[in-house]
Design a protein that fits this description.
Blueprint (H helix, E strand, L loop, with lengths): L1 H8 L11 E6 L14 H7 L7 E3 L8 E3 L19 E5 L14 H14 L7 H8 L15 H7 E4 L2 E5 L7 H7 L6 H6 L10 H4 L19 E7 L4 E6 L12 E6 L3 H10 L4 E2 L6 H6 L3 E7 L6 E5 L29 H10 L2 H7 L6 E2 L22 H10 L4 H5 L1 E8 L3 H17 L3 E8 L1 H9 L5 E5 L7 H9 L4 H6 L4 H10 L5 H18 L2 E3 L1 E2 L2 E6 L2 E2 L23 E2 L3
Parallel strand pairs: 1-9, 1-10, 14-15
Antiparallel strand pairs: 2-3, 4-6, 5-6, 7-8, 8-9, 11-19, 12-16, 12-17, 13-18, 20-21
Helix pairs in contact: 3-4, 11-13, 17-19, 19-20
Length: 582
């Protein structure tokens, strides 16, 4: 009780939100505003209110329909803005759109934004999603750090022709419009250069390639075309404040001020929501009953989700230098060797030891679908298959006795399992797995280690974590995003794991080229089967999404397919939201 009291006393003293402001009590902090570095859920949720895409999804997401946005038209073969071979897209840029600093959007700003997104290629960032379709590579750098692309090629692929931005792909790329509709990244070239960022020239681009996101000039600055602009952002106070962009091209938003406040303690976030000091709060399912019981609080449940939930990632060869997560670094009962999880029997032993029903009933309160692998086929209207295994202690014991030719079972091990300290479901996964392994063999010691999200991401990229839990949501609503990010050797998670299978790479690369939907689905089914054979990660349950909000907030409906116009992550798009006076 004392710790909870201190958590509440540590909060800033906010006045109750007014009818023209909105306060969000968040589990995670906003890491960056920089579109070239956005790769965490909280930063993305804020960014979609600052920046805007060329096109957005239409009402029929199942048929991948699109609507114009910063582009005045959606390129199609019928209107002549998409070439017959599907490789050249022309986007006529909307006129009269103003940036937050008053400057007018031009085709050159769009061109610059696309080039910057690709060529800056931040460590752990999203550049690959545009690099592959436009330049045919997943990274601007070779394994030895040498540059793998030329500015001339990028400059030729993304160009301005009169009032249009013309993008030429290396080859047809089926989800290209879906990708563009999911990523708000258009920013002011003039503003970025004035902040010390890339000026758009060939002479200086290499200086900004691979820039560490923490030192990037635009980490805490933004100048987009969205309905809100950055007022203040403080890492010390763990908050970001946005104010209304009064010159917004579709007219000013009803809400004037948005406050995103990171609060570590879930009890404190719940209390803020219950007392009306926050309009929404990040809560685990275990807190929803208390939230719903409070007059004035609304729980939006059973929302569609593109997430695969928490995932257990095995590192096939961890960095061993001065790494306490490995203990002794040897299979001697006091640690694990760097390649501990390269043994398939270890991975399968862990998978069969886990109690999936306990997680579903305890942490998820019965809400979730048992996951079979990286592809949530049911979310795409497709039949689901069987998981790798269930809670089968005897089978787990068999695998672990075979691992390392019996040495593991005899000597035992000690290792750390890192997870996001603000993710209660990830914590439950870690604790259930640790207990299950200890019950199989008292010499098995897996120590759950709560870790700040930023540290978790940084250390996983450095291959310092032998085992870690992270969530995953696709970059855009297409199965290729799951395939590349989770199974391709150039994807962010396989890179962090040291996982590489040439067969998986070939399947991922070939599937995205297919225009026939049935053929694509068949390819992804093969990938799911290959996943089950290799088991590079362990999936638990595909979650059911939900949000909490105070009553009186309009612009939300429980039957909405998504809560934002980009059809991803169930983040709030504040432009269409308003509040009734209390």
């Amino acid at each position: 009780m004392t710790s909870l009291l201190f958590a509440l006393l540590a909060l800033p003293l906010w006045a109750a939100p007014s009818s023209d402001s909105f306060i969000s009590a968040d589990a995670d902090r906003v890491f960056t505003f920089d579109p070239a570095a956005l790769y965490d859920r909280q930063s993305f949720a804020v960014a979609l209110n600052l920046f805007e895409p060329l096109v957005v999804f239409g009402t029929d997401t199942a048929k991948s329909s699109f609507r114009p946005f910063l582009s005045m038209e959606v390129p199609t073969r019928e209107n002549g803005l998409l070439s017959k071979d599907g490789t050249v897209y022309a986007f006529p840029i909307r006129k009269g759109v103003r940036f937050h600093d008053g400057g007018e959007l031009t085709p050159e700003d769009v061109r610059y934004s696309i080039l910057r997104f690709m060529l800056q290629d931040r460590p752990g960032g999203p550049a690959a999603i545009l690099l592959k379709p436009i330049l045919g590579v997943y990274s601007t750098r070779k394994p030895d750090g040498a540059l793998a692309v030329r500015f001339e090629d990028a400059d030729k692929a993304v160009r301005v022709e009169e009032e249009k931005v013309v993008i030429t792909l290396k080859e047809p790329y089926e989800p290209f419009l879906s990708l563009l509709a999911s990523w708000p990244f258009i920013l002011s070239k003039k503003f970025a250069a004035a902040q010390g960022d890339w000026d758009g020239t060939q002479a200086s681009w290499e200086r900004f390639n691979g820039l560490e996101p923490r030192t990037a000039p635009l980490r805490r600055r933004a100048c987009g075309t969205g309905p809100y602009r950055v007022e203040t952002s403080s890492t010390a106070e763990n908050r970001a404040v946005l104010t209304r962009h009064d010159a917004y091209w579709r007219g000013p938003a009803p809400l004037k001020t948005l406050v995103f406040h990171q609060v570590d303690c879930e009890f404190a976030r719940l209390s803020m929501l219950q007392t009306g000091d926050a309009d929404t709060a990040d809560l685990s399912r275990s807190s929803l009953k208390d939230a719903a019981a409070e007059p004035g609080v609304l729980v939006l449940d059973d929302l569609p989700s593109s997430s695969v939930g928490p995932v257990l990632f095995f590192n096939f060869k961890a960095d061993a230098k001065d790494n306490p997560a490995l203990g002794s670094g040897r299979l001697d009962g006091k640690g694990i060797p760097p390649d501990f999880f390269s043994d398939p029997d270890v991975r399968r032993g862990f998978a069969c030891a886990f109690d999936y029903d306990l997680l579903l009933n305890y942490a998820l309160r019965g809400k979730g679908q048992r996951a079979e692998g990286p592809f949530p086929f049911k979310a795409f209207g497709l039949p689901a298959g069987a998981p790798v295994c269930g809670h089968e202690p005897e089978k787990a014991r068999e695998h672990l006795k075979r691992a390392f030719k019996g040495a593991l079972w005899k000597k035992g091990f000690q290792a750390e399992l890192a997870y996001n300290a603000n993710d209660s479901v990830a914590q439950a996964v870690a604790e259930i797995l640790s207990t299950a392994l200890r019950e199989l063999n008292g010499a098995f010691s897996l120590n759950p280690k709560p870790t700040w999200k930023s540290t978790l991401e940084r250390e996983s990229l450095r291959r310092r974590l032998p085992l870690f839990i992270s969530g995953f949501e696709p970059d855009y609503p297409d199965l290729h995003s799951y395939a590349f990010s989770l199974l391709h050797s150039a994807g962010p998670f396989p890179l962090a794991q040291g996982y590489s299978n040439p067969k998986a790479d070939a399947l991922v690369d070939s599937a995205v080229r297919l225009s026939d939907e049935a053929a694509r689905l068949k390819a992804y089914a093969k990938l799911q089967a290959l996943y089950k054979k290799d088991l590079p990660q362990l999936y638990f349950h595909y979650p059911v999404a939900y949000r909490t909000v105070r009553e009186g907030v309009s612009g939300l409906r429980k039957d909405d397919k998504r809560l934002d116009p980009f059809n991803l992550h169930n983040a709030f798009y504040f432009y269409r939201m308003s509040k009734e006076p209390r």
